[in-house]
User: Fold this.
Amino acid sequence: FVMAGAFFVYVLVIYVELPYVFAAISAVLIMLGMGLGVSRGFIDPIKAGPHIGFAMMSISLGYVLRGGARFLWGREVFPMPRVFDIEPFFIGNLVVTGDVLFISAIVAVFLLIFFFIFYRTTTGVIIQAVYQSERGATLIGVNVRAFHQSMWGVGLAMGALAGILIAPISLLHPDLGATFLIRGFAAMTLGGFGSLGGAVVGGLLLGVAEQLFGFYINSSLQDITAYLIIVAVLVIRPAGLFGRTVTVRV
Assistant:
């Protein structure tokens, strides 16, 4: 889904010749609608089954999208249109580009928005209630089915936004997103599932760890850092740095 959002922007900018901002907004809205459709058409019918079914369905749909992209564009790599044509500048020995500044600003804004929604609004309370107990949320009047559909829509829209932000500083190809999926999982595992702040801190620590491993030990270890972190955290502290261990009475 990360890849799909980036390819939507590529098509709208290159072939339809829309301005980049309008193309990005259109791609996010398209993926929002796709998320609602996926939830209704593919997720709702398997709700009564085991939880592994959700994961398998998501993985299968991802492979379908990747296969479709490979059918249309092959395995070629495409340069994504630049957001800003600003000359790179240096901060000490660090090279900073306009794209990196733009992406960092967008990510910071969305993090603040999500922190506010999650911890300061009724919607955030509902999200936490459903996460803790769907049955309990239903008993207090929450429409859990509509909630899940909305979360799928928002999730795919944010995945599309991630692809749109990643593609300009990497390259656009059908496997875009697959390499970042395991890093995202590692960041959540390190920070703690269910902790928004933990996911942010986990992502930052993972990025630093990758660079340190690559610079001081061996560059070949940089690509396996995420896997090493997942294994280490699951063995030492399965709940993550900021996750809470919950005891359930049966």
Remarks:
- The first strand starts at residue 89 and ends at 91.
- The chain has a mean pLDDT of 82.
- DSSP finds ten helices and two strands in the chain.
